[in-house]
Amino acid sequence: MSRGFSLQRCRAVDNRGAGIWYDIGNERSEVAHCYVADNDEAGIFYEISYGLHAHDNLIVNNANHVEKPRGAWGFGGITLSSSEDCVIEHNTLVGNRDGLTFREQNRTTPRIDGGEQRVLNRRHVLRNNLVASSQGFNVAFWMDTTFFGPHPGGHDKSDPIFEDPKSLTFQLEHNLLFALPGRSNYLFGCSWRPKSRMAHTPTEFLGVSGIADSSFTGDPRFRDPLAREYSLLPDSPVARMNVGVRDASQIPQR
User: Fold this and answer.
1) How far apart, in whole angstroms, are the C-alpha atoms of residue 59 and residue 76?
2) What are 9-46's pLDDT values in tens digits?
3) CA distance linking residue 44 with residue 34, whole number of Å
């Protein structure tokens, strides 16, 4: 648990788990101007907590281990797991398993000031991020809930229907998404649930989810992504769009 804990200008590289992990009842956290790369699980993992502000981070090649039965699932560059009131803005995420992800189960968390309460993904704002070349999806709603139908194991077939994500105030605004060839930008619902859907464009995502998204799709035109040189070519559309990290000089050397 923490309140008002800020990580700035840090390197979180090559860990066997998450790069940066806040877990259980954290409040008003910040992660800014960090380089987060090559971690086995999520780059930034915010779990059963409140009020993360993650901005101006470079997040590369995290969580690139396939989901397996009873193993880690739903991890990406930034993963919000049953958390509330987060603002994720002006991050550059490249080549992670998934880019921006929401991981959901039916959970509770203790609070710093006492008591325990139910917590779930809601009232998030994701804006002005650049999300490119994710191995799975650039935006993934890994929601393992009955809203998307019963679990194949059958243990929850008599449970109440979980909240519809479109009622939980997700704001997706002015992000740039660039999918790998043959991949979809969006996943809506865990892939093992029968009502899970994929979508490629923001318009398609609105159609399957009911959640509006004013984002764009297109190639950001990095100078040399294989060499992890994420400056932009002169004809890149990103300079006109105000997405991604605003001042790369604030991020520690890779």
Assistant:
1) 10
2) 999 999 999 999 999 999 999 999 999 999 999 999 99
3) 10
